[in-house]
Write a structure and sequence with these properties.
4 copies of one chain form a homotetramer. By secondary structure, the first copy, chain A, is α/β, with parallel strands linked by helices. Chain A is 42% helix and 17% strand. Chain A has 2 domains: 183 residues, Rossmann fold, CATH 3.40.50; 118 residues, Rossmann fold. The longest helix of chain A has 22 residues.
Chain lengths: 327, 327, 327, 327
């Protein structure tokens, strides 16, 4: 039987919708199993500073539908040092916390893994990031909400694009991975989608836009991931296209941070609830160094080091669907 | 090689968000493969009446984000007769349509199967129903959107519930299956969820509500599927609870048809796009009598007769999560 | 110069979106003028029980966009008695509260007026109700948000109505006044609108629906205020129409309490902010027994007794517009 | 009696939500009075090219809730020449159009006025622009919707701002007028609002941000109109603040074109419906060269030349409210 009596929960890295729902789930699962739960403010930095708050089932009411994270998030350079991590360990021990649930992405998990190796402290990870770039789960927390936010905004942009027969380049998040761009692009009916995983090539882009114009399309949306393979940012793309296709009037929209916010979708709320239960129960069963995830529609766990090293792959079938849709 | 030259597409049964996106996908995939496509109005009834419209890539622009189905849906008693189906067949032949994609649920697929057996006419099914009650796909078209609609509305109801310390019974769709109630209930943070698959029992409901009150919860939401096992409708539940727990002020909200409408979520738009491609490509490969579906995150096909006879199962793990969350 | 040192603020009656924003404004205006502010929980009942909380500028952060009222609302039979009001007065005096801002509707203002007359206690009213049935302001707090909620829902219902060529009766709030029904009805493009102020007559309704069908309209929405003049509720209307116009397939949707919830619109947030400032400044100027309001786009005040006795009038021009729109 | 038999309607200039609803209203009012109506595509350019479409009551169904303008909008250099306007006149005469309703802003009305003076052609204007910068109406079409869009997005940005204790500069539309910035800023609870009408001064901005930090505010939103008086764009402001207040981590978000799109609010739909009726009825009464508007909650008309020359004034009271709210 587990000897865990008090679990600490924190959010770290970029915030994502569903983090509050995940915290709530961790807290309520602790209450269900009659163990204590402490919230750790501002990620690893708050851990070092002992910035904790005692949380019971009532303290997390009314947050399942709130964006962001009420425990806040922060970067911590101090946690990258041995001394910082020692301070964090001491603070946890002083507060009688004997296991951790960390909610975040790659960087968060790397920190947790090192911390576990140094202090043999039980840790479980919950993947919370809008980028969906973690191996070991089909969906990270917040990803589904972000997709809905992005298609909503592009729907609005299309209203004005089609009123004026314009071409829009819309930049969405995704420095290394194109999941948001590809899915939201298909969802919003984008004519072209530029992602880091594929080199469409400028020539093909021009050709596609030219064909689009000829086929009678009056307006076009091109969705561009921040880290698109073409290597031009949206403003350079605008200039390039206007130079080469003067028949187009081009506009740019950079969606930016709004993509991180908003009330989580039902999917993200349910996923957060399931993940929180699984994380706490895994700790209580004596497990550690795992990330909970959704695989084949079921809750599952993946070793943290695998989750970190793994590479999320772009859905090739969906690229093909995208091509067919912009016929 | 396929000899299919013209595919007919129709929607039938209750409408669901994403149906327009699926029609668009079927039409554009036909355009991509340079075959013709005809829209069939009002389901099997329009098929009988030869109410067709020629559709090309441009005719489906601007519909990916629209709720409902522009091809409309209808019941057809005539199609239940041999004579009706013969008329439908004659109309298809007269219009040179040589294969069908039908978008709908159980009843739609049953009709398609009989039609295929009688006339050896190639048919493919796309599961479009908000209830998610079809075997062979983890998600039916529209289900994800409906969940978001329902949690949005319950979020609003909770605003007023918690302002007045009230108990609300919220009835959601689901005569035979509790997927909407269970998932939206967890997503909305409902205190109890009553579904057709489980007999919670009136005693446990009362006890749970009593405990809730004692634990300091000031307001409560109980989500009830139309076909809950307890066998009382929401208004009877209200009376029963008010009689037995006079400390509660109870209100009822029946969400009704709004659950079917609205702009589809990104998930449903992407799913619709993938399913349309898969359905057309399956026909072109010479397949028939299959339903396309999402299984383990991948496009797959299931024999129509299996899809019809199968039983969608409630997620037991999620019932447990729901119990833990209402701690 | 005013001798007011501490203002109490409370919400009472049915909650409406924007109440939190109004509380925030009252609190911040007090902070701006360096006087204290106390929140009174659960309206007059909390006043009697001395259920107060000290509020400063920081305690109301993050609530401008939240529906409902965090101070909660409740009915109080005790406040209808002289003894109850005496208790309330004693509690206020004990807490050094020397003036009141009450946010609510008719009933709330009546209570405030009596309280002022008995104890000469300074009171100011802010009209917070979704019904827009208060004289002395063109808009009550929450009304604009509710209109947006209602048209959003009817937009969804129309998706399914037009997919199936159905007629929907949609019941919206408004027992004595038809403002919500008339405005949301015009905004949602309803074919007919039944309100308490006008007797359309059943014959005209039938005739209009018949004409609608003949003119090729495939689906229809009829918006019905709870207190429509025809005197039939939506379910009776459904039966009546189905009996007399069998060509129609009729459905009913009762929107209910969701109309009260949701994040306030920008208009309601701005209005709440303006009203809170005006209410506090009026008290500080030594005024009392007034309701703040928006008249001709400007902040103004109306004696509370006029606001109570007044009758809000339906916009006849808009009834005419509605008729023309359903041509 | 009027001899007008056919009215042309067009949209011109930047599109705004509610334009479709206004077109619908013009069309239906024509139908009501049994006169013909023609839609003119792409504003004055389409008028020159005779790009017209006959519109009856049924052709505008289902558009009241759609953003953008289905008649499209465009700039026309040709219409700035005498020859261009002559062509336009000839095209109108050839199509038997004998009066115009133009929906747009300043530029649109200027064109209409010149056209009327040259050809004595009856014209009425409907103010459609998100900027609310037209004299003679308290609200232009689309303004209310844009405010809701902007506060929605800033709500999302605040989720991530407060999760990370960051300062955000959010740029909203408004080159010459600060209505959007001021109202959406108050509605979103912005700490500071920079508008073209007021020179807040960089020093005061820094001081206010410093005070904000000291008073314990963990995150801040500063809303900046495109044409803010300070004369720095949002990126320059970010650099300036980061240099002078290194304790702040600053982010920038430029909302851009999404502000123009989206389904119109109930207010804008109702306003559009009222304005369309008023515009057509004014023409039928023999009036011309007027803009319809909402003044003191009532439909009214203003001479087009006054509307053009007038200056919309910022609401000084609201600036004061904004200051008090950021206490």
């Amino acid at each position: 039987m587990s000897k865990i009596k008090k679990i600490g929960v924190m959010t770290s890295g970029g915030d994502s919708p569903g983090m509050n729902a995940a915290i709530r789930s961790v807290v309520r699962t602790c209450a269900f199993y009659k163990i204590e739960c402490a919230g750790i403010y501002r990620g690893y930095q708050g851990m070092i500073e002992g910035d904790f708050i005692s949380l019971d089932a009532r303290s997390v009411k009314g947050i399942i539908n709130k964006g962001g994270t009420f425990l806040k998030s922060a970067r911590s350079n101090e946690f990258r040092t041995k001394e910082g991590r020692q301070k964090a360990y001491d603070a946890l021990i002083a507060a009688n916390i004997d296991a951790l649930v960390v909610i975040g992405g790659d960087g968060t998990f790397t920190g947790a893994l090192i911390f576990n190796q140094e202090f043999n402290f039980p840790v479980m990870g919950i993947p919370g990031t809008i980028d969906n770039d973690i191996t070991g789960t089909s969906h990270t927390l917040g990803y589904d909400t972000t997709l809905n936010t992005v298609v909503d905004v592009i729907d609005k942009i299309r209203d004005t694009a089609s009123s004026h027969n314009r071409l829009f380049f819309v930049e969405v998040m995704g420095r290394d991975v194109g999941h948001i761009a590809l899915n939201a692009g298909v969802g919003a009916g984008a004519e072209e989608i530029l992602i880091p995983e594929e080199d469409l090539g400028l020539d093909r882009l021009l050709e596609s836009l030219k064909r689009s114009k000829e086929s009678g399309k009056s307006s076009s949306i091109v969705v561009v991931a921040e880290g698109d393979k073409i290597g031009k940012n949206v403003f350079e793309l605008k200039d390039y296209v206007e130079e080469n296709l003067p028949e187009y009037e081009v506009r740019v929209s950079v969606l930016g941070h709004m993509q991180r916010g908003g009330s989580p979708s039902c999917f993200d709320r349910v996923l957060a609830s399931r993940m929180g239960v699984k994380a706490v129960e895994s700790l209580l069963e004596g497990q550690s160094n795992l990330m909970v995830g959704l695989l084949n529609e079921k809750m599952s766990v993946t070793p943290l080091d695998k989750a970190i090293k793994g590479q999320s792959k772009i859905n090739k079938e969906l690229i093909r669907v995208s091509d067919i849709m912009s016929t």
